């Protein structure tokens, strides 16, 4: 692991939270995207952010991690226009119950990557957060099996746009 984190402190309650770049960094978003797809065994995820430049960078890294997760060929929808967490969950539920991640950055630089299951519920330890934390703690973040297993990243401006 190139830049380890305190996984027990950062990854809890269905989210990763920490000050950028000391407690959390953009690589964590890649790790979460990959672990999220493999843990939930999904072929589609959505990710959105609050419009902050740091959040946008984390969303891009989350998408790359999800698209590169082993053999899942995950289709990742990245909403490039700022979106609230509630808007993302509503869209993800309307789009066939797609698991999702929402990224925010506070004025103090605290980044939060919230993870939601297919029903829009924050990811609990029982539903996969504990496994994700374990994969990251043990440096077992999934990587692509081969180039043909890579997924697709689709950038969309707004939830209703196509």
Describe this structure in words.
- By secondary structure, the chain is α/β, with parallel strands linked by helices.
- The protein is built from 5 helices and 7 strands.
- Strand 1 and strand 2 form a beta hairpin.
- It starts with 6 loop residues before the first helix and ends in a 6-residue tail after the last strand.
- The mean pLDDT is 93.
Q: What's the quick description here?
A:
With 162 residues, the chain is α/β, with parallel strands linked by helices.
Considering the protein shown, what is the CATH homologous superfamily?
Alpha-D-Glucose-1,6-Bisphosphate, subunit A, domain 3
The share of residues in extended strands comes to 15-25%
In total, the number of domains comes to: 1
Overall shape: globular
Q: Strand order across the biggest sheet?
A: 1-2-6-5-3-4-7
List its salient traits.
single chain; about 160 residues; alpha/beta; Alpha-D-Glucose-1,6-Bisphosphate, Chain A, domain 3; seven-stranded mixed sheet; 5 helices; 7 strands; about 35% helix; globular
What's the topology here?
Elements: H1 7-10, E1 11-12, E2 15-19, H2 26-40, E3 44-49, H3 53-67, E4 75-79, H4 85-94, E5 100-105, E6 110-116, H5 125-137, E7 152-156
Parallel strand pairs: 3-4, 3-5, 4-7
Antiparallel strand pairs: 1-2, 2-6, 5-6
């Amino acid at each position: 692991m190139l830049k380890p984190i305190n996984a027990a402190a950062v990854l809890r309650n269905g989210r990763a939270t920490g000050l950028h770049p000391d407690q959390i960094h953009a690589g964590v978003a890649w790790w979460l995207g990959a672990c999220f797809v493999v843990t939930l065994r999904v072929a589609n995820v959505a990710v959105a952010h609050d419009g902050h430049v740091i959040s946008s960078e984390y969303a891009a890294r989350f998408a790359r991690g999800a698209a590169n997760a082993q053999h899942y060929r995950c289709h990742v929808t990245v909403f490039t226009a700022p979106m609230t967490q509630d808007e993302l969950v509503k869209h993800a539920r309307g789009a066939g119950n797609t698991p999702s991640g929402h990224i925010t950055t506070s004025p103090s630089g605290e980044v939060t990557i919230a993870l939601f299951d297919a029903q829009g519920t924050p990811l609990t330890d029982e539903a996969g957060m504990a496994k994700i934390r374990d994969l990251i703690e043990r440096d077992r973040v999934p990587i692509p099996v081969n180039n043909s297993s890579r997924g697709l990243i689709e950038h969309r401006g707004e939830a209703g746009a196509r």
